[in-house]
């Protein structure tokens, strides 16, 4: 029965079939689990492989890349280059992210054509965006496949228009840019930053380490410059140049008690935001690097030396005003001034002959010593790298050389030399070096004494009288008590001698003369006689008016307000000035 049942598919056969099915299900389940495990392992292995590649790449860059950089939050927040400000915190130079236009001829591969359109067509489209672009030059660069900058500074809207051209080879990288918010203002003071990131020419070069060092670049550097005074000085110098068709101009405003430079201008100027060949040709600084024979502006310095040395004790003493003959040379005045002049008249009328005779009494050695004390024998003292060396007469001055130096010939210095010397002459007699750094209270250098305080007091009277009654009348701004001296010197010729048609016209001034605070120098290089200057080329008609317009503009800005109720007392010398007592 059992056997029959088994053979014919009884209950026993059913049980065996069920058991066999369960075994097969278990086997399939194990195989599925094994497959899942392998898949997980493969995925883990793939991720591990990718992680290993990433680690190897990082290690490679760490060993072969640039030097490690700080990644602190403080470092990330620092500007790439420090900021320069004026004395009141107004930014004059700062760094910020900017776009550039770069031509990459390999943008579509080594063998692909860099441009879809013709180079001339691409250049024309760029010219529509940048009207000042040299399209011919850009077209040549594109045609030659020469990679490089097409433009260093782009506005965001300009960058968008470049992208709309649709040329992949026109790339717009983001770079760190040096920007000068005041444009061309104070260009010779600031200088610029070259493509390699280093400062050039001005304070950018002087302060390069401070501005680029991570430890110091976060602190702005305050200069002594006041942008309000700087702007006014440049504006008036530019106006004076245009009115007289001069080829150049220079000016400086100097604090007589500290040596701080509030403004320094050399015209024509360059644009530090756009350095090109034309800009490089204008980088020469007329104030600190170019030396000139500054003519009659030296006469007060020579008279001060004679008074200080005790050679001139009586300002009323008469000096022969006829030509001075020394060997085969003769010193003359530009026009007849009478048979004789006293010391005050010598400065008021700007006489070469009587100044030469005063210097002759002083003697070459003593005059030379005073000039040395005023720094006339060395490069000007200021932080700028470009500083001209004076044309100095040497160790032993013959009699004639001493006479010519006394009225500003035979010696050539920078306008900055003259400014520092005038500061010493009017501030009580102490010479101090000029500086472009803002100084705090008590930080002014002690300086060195050149003149007695009594000498300085007497010179203030005579400079004021010159502005009231003499050649400086066009500089006498009402209420500001200006004092100063003109200087009109012929420029040396190429083969010796002087060019009678080429003058350097200078006015050296200080104000207010009852308590001098600032020296102002205005100089024009080769002005012409025009209708604006009454067809005269001398400083009384072109440089002096610049000071006369400038002082009222800057006075209230720097703490000197006009006051018609006060002035320096010149009653002691008025009797020596014909017509002054009327």
From TrEMBL:
GO terms, biological process: cell division; cell wall organization
Source species of the chain: Qipengyuania nanhaisediminis
GO annotation, cellular component aspect: plasma membrane
Transmembrane domains' residue ranges: 40-60
InterPro entries, A to Z: Beta-lactam/transpept, Beta-lactam/transpept-like, PBP_dimer, PBP_dimer_sf, PCN-bd_Tpept
Subcellular location: Membrane
Protein name: Cell division protein FtsI (Penicillin-binding protein 3)
Domain Penicillin-binding protein dimerisation intervals: 79-196
GO molecular function: carboxypeptidase activity; penicillin binding
Any single Pfam family the record assigns to this protein: Transpeptidase
Keywords: Carboxypeptidase, Cell cycle, Cell division, Hydrolase, Membrane, Protease, Transmembrane, Transmembrane helix
Domain Penicillin-binding protein transpeptidase span(s) in chain numbering: 250-535
Gene3D superfamilies: 3.30.450.330, DD-peptidase/beta-lactamase superfamily, Penicillin-binding protein 2a (Domain 2), Penicillin-binding protein 2a, domain 3
């Amino acid at each position: 029965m059992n056997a029959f049942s088994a053979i014919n598919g009884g209950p026993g056969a059913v049980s065996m079939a069920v058991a066999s099915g369960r075994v097969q299900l278990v086997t399939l389940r194990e195989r599925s689990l094994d497959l899942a495990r392998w898949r997980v392992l493969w995925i883990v292995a793939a991720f591990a492989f990718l992680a290993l590649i990433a680690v190897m790449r990082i290690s490679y860059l760490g060993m072969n890349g640039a030097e490690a950089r700080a990644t602190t939050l403080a470092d990330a927040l620092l500007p790439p280059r420090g900021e320069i400000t004026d004395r009141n915190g107004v930014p004059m130079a700062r760094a910020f992210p900017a776009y550039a236009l770069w031509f990459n001829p390999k943008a579509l591969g080594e063998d692909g054509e860099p441009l879809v359109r013709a180079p001339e067509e691409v250049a024309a489209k760029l010219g529509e965006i940048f009207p000042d672009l040299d399209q011919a030059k850009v077209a040549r660069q594109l045609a030659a496949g020469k990679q490089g900058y097409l433009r260093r500074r782009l506005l965001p809207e300009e960058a968008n228009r470049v992208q709309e051209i649709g040329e992949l080879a026109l790339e717009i990288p983001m770079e760190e840019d040096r920007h000068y918010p005041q444009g061309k203002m104070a260009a010779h003071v600031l200088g610029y930053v070259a493509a390699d990131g280093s400062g050039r020419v001005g304070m950018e070069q002087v302060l390069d380490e401070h501005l680029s060092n991570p430890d110091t670049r976060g602190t702005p550097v305050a200069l002594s410059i006041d942008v309000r005074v700087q702007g006014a000085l440049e504006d008036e110098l530019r106006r004076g140049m245009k009115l007289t068709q001069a080829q150049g101009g220079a000016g400086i405003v100097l604090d007589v008690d500290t040596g701080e430079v509030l403004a320094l201008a050399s015209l024509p100027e360059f644009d530090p935001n756009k350095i090109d060949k034309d800009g490089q040709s204008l980088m020469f600084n007329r104030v600190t690097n170019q030396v000139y024979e500054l003519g009659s502006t030296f006469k007060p310095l020579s008279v001060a030396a004679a008074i200080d040395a005790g050679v001139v004790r009586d300002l009323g003493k008469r000096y022969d005003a006829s030509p001075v003959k020394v060997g085969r040379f003769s010193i003359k005045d530009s026009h007849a001034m009478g048979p004789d002049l006293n010391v005050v008249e010598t400065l008021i009328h700007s006489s070469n002959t009587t100044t030469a005779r005063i210097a002759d009494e002083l003697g070459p050695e003593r005059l030379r010593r005073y000039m040395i004390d005023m720094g006339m024998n060395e490069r000007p003292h200021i932080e700028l790298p470009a500083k001209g060396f004076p044309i100095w007469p040497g160790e032993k001055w013959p009699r004639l050389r001493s006479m010519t130096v006394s009225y500003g010939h035979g010696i050539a210095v920078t306008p900055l030399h003259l400014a520092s010397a005038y500061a010493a002459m009017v501030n009580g007699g102490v010479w101090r070096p000029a500086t472009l750094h803002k100084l705090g209270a008590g930080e002014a250098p002690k300086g060195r004494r050149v003149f007695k305080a009594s000498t300085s007091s007497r010179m203030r009277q005579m400079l004021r009288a010159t502005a009231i009654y003499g050649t400086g009348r066009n500089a006498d701004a009402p209420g500001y008590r200006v004092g100063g001296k003109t200087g009109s010197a012929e420029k040396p010729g190429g083969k010796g001698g002087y060019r009678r048609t080429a003058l350097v016209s200078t006015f050296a001034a200080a104000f207010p003369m009852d308590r001098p605070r600032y020296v102002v120098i205005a100089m024009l290089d080769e002005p012409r006689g025009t209708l604006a200057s009454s067809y005269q080329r001398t400083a009384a008609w072109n440089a002096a008016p610049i000071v006369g317009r400038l002082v009222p503009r800057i006075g209230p800005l720097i703490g000197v307000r006009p006051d018609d109720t006060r002035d320096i007392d010149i009653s002691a010398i008025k009797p020596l000035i014909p017509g002054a007592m009327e």
